[in-house]
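Go through this pair.

…
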Amino acid sequence: MDSSIIQGISTFRGSVFPGQQRMYERLVRDGQQPKALIIACADSRVSPEHITQAGPGELFVCRNAGNIVPPFSQMNGGVSSAIEYAVVALGVRDVVVCGHSDCGAMKGLMQPGALKDMPNVAAWLRHSHAADRIVCEAYPDDIDPKDRLRALALENVVVQLAHLRTHPSVAAALARGGLSLHGWFFEIETGTLHAYDGTRFVPLTDEAALPVAEVSTPRRAAADLPVRVAAE
């Protein structure tokens, strides 16, 4: 184990925790009440808690290679379980898919040969193949490689948002009007956060409201049927 990690643990126990002990005791006593679920990349340079300056108990975070959300029917795994738990048990009202610049997973999509010794990574990235197809067919062939990588990372966020809607807990919460979906892109080199407004990604500024990919509004396709009354 790297010595800096051991030193960090020691600093936390000796200097940080004593001043925050009551907060941690409260979190155990009252339980967690996170404001949002953030599905982010496992890249060590991208920390949702750091980007949002959130404290313990404020965010429910699920990280994986490529900030991927497998379609519900294709995988019963950690990402699907985290989504279901966050929406059903914790009652989060916002779910964010957060991509980022210089993403290694997206580089793997662009250069499949680099994954020949990583079959599990290659299999996992099949959930991003739609984004790769979009960039291949909807963007110019002579696009600069850096721009292509950026486009792929952005399109991947949009694809994962579509996958997110296939999860029953998400679909039901959207229909009830109790959930909003967000697509973010963090530019590591500038610290800029871009948010998807349903059409394109726009940089977040201090003055502007945060764009939302899909605002939840109550809806029922069978509008002629009685509304379900919640149990008392």
About this structure: The two ends are 53 Å apart (CA to CA).
